[in-house]
Amino acid sequence: MAREIQQRCPLPNGLHARPAAVLSAAARKFASSITLVNERSGVQANAKSPLSSITLDLRHDDAFRVLIDGADEDDACAFLSRFLEVEFPACDTPLEVADGDGAKIPLSPMLVDSKAGFQRGLAVVGGVGRGRLIDLHRKVALPESANRPPANIESECVRASVAVERVVGRFDAISAAVSRGLERDVIEAQRSILEDDEFRSRLEAVIRRDGCSAGIGVLSAAREIGDVLRGSSNPLLAARADDIDDICRHLLVELYGNEVISALPVLQEDSIVVADTLLASELLAFNLNRLKGLILGQTSATAHVVIVARSRGIPTLVGVETARLRPDIGSSVIVDGEAGAVVTGDIASCDAYYELERIRIADRAAFEQTRASASASNGSVGGVSLMANASSVEDIERGIQAGAAGIGLLR
């Protein structure tokens, strides 16, 4: 007899890519079919598929059911009941959501009166960065052979399958090399899509349906899946289309070599990167010691690249009209993640202002650390310990710096 679990979604950001990957890994431990049902919408999804799960559009506090049917349903029900009660609520942390009116904050009179020029954007990662403006446009150029109908469809399906397996191995290597827990979670979420039976089935189905090469199949599958995600009213879900693009770029490189994607620039000096879009794996491929800021045109404030930039403290703006910055490519600019502005032209005329900003930001950080430390003790009611969640040494160090008394959850 099928088993059922009733729950409410405890995740502040709903069931998006990273917790969906964790949930699917738990569900795949069992042979039974495991189905999620969103009680608000009635939509059903395969719990073993991250792609299927995120399209459920399960939001915070939504009621949902887990239907379990199969030979090991009793064991699955017991395991998942505990998982949903204990581990699932802790598998994600609230995203810092930028204020949509951030770009409307008036600039300081000191800036307005300077000789510099300004482009406004939405500040999604605070701080101030200065460096040479580097233009980034990633272009995909498949070889001519990929545009011709293949002689053998079966061979193309096998090529696509082998490429998926090799890219899974590549993501494993990236994950092992990343020491920060949040960044590892982003890579693991992308890897889980590659391992998703629905993704693999969609890729093979496109190749068979269109009679196309593996490369064209990858591009078509990415477009079809991405269009579904971008069509969602949930911005977190829409932003996951970037993950599909990221995965498919890796697949194309595996199929045809590095020359199919224009190379990332090598940052040899302090630099600010401007691009319409940037993928999380591309950001991690930069020399991050030289990357002082990001200016993104068509990237969501909740995209994984923004999450990684925040974990690295890289000042970032989104929603910038990047075309208007082309005359400034190669020049020194400032990314102001406090006011939501790119400062161009005579940036030296702003030096006095940004020296005051440097002091203000440092004072704010010191105040936050002092407040966090002070809040760990309350004389009227006794001691109260604030604990940090951690999944890496860096998480522990940041927790200590913020005044945490210890580690409450070690992932």
- By DSSP (H or I, 4+ residues per run), the number of helices equals 14
| Shape call | globular
- Taken in chain order, the helices and strands follow as EHEEHEHHEEEHHHHHHEHEHEEEHEEEHE
Helix content: 40-55%
Which band does the percent of strand residues land in? 15-25%
Major β-sheet profile: 8 strands, mixed
Q: List how many beta strands DSSP finds.
A: 16
Radius of gyration: 23 Å
The strand line-up of the biggest sheet is 5-12-11-7-8-9-10-6
Low-confidence stretches: none
Could you give the distance between the termini?
34 Å
Average pLDDT, rounded to a whole number, is 86
Overview of this protein structure:
With 411 residues, this protein is an alpha/beta fold. The protein contains 14 helices and 16 strands. The strands form 4 sheets. The protein has an 8-stranded mixed β-sheet. Strands 1-4-2-3 form a 4-stranded antiparallel β-sheet. The chain has a two-stranded antiparallel sheet with strand order 13-14. Helix 1 packs across helix 6 and helix 5 crosses helix 10. The model has no long low-confidence stretch (mean pLDDT 86).
Task: Summarize the topology.
Blueprint (H helix, E strand, L loop, with lengths): L2 E6 L8 H11 L5 E6 L5 E3 L3 H5 L8 E7 L3 H15 L21 H4 L3 E5 L1 E4 L2 E8 L17 H25 L3 H14 L2 H14 L3 H17 L4 H5 L1 H16 L14 E5 L4 H6 L5 E6 L7 H9 L3 E3 L13 E5 L4 E5 L5 H24 L2 E2 L3 E2 L3 E4 L2 H9 L4 E5 L1
Parallel strand pairs: 7-8, 8-9, 9-10, 15-16
Antiparallel strand pairs: 1-4, 2-3, 2-4, 5-12, 6-10, 7-11, 11-12, 13-14
Helix pairs in contact: 1-6, 5-6, 5-7, 5-8, 5-10, 6-10, 7-8, 8-10
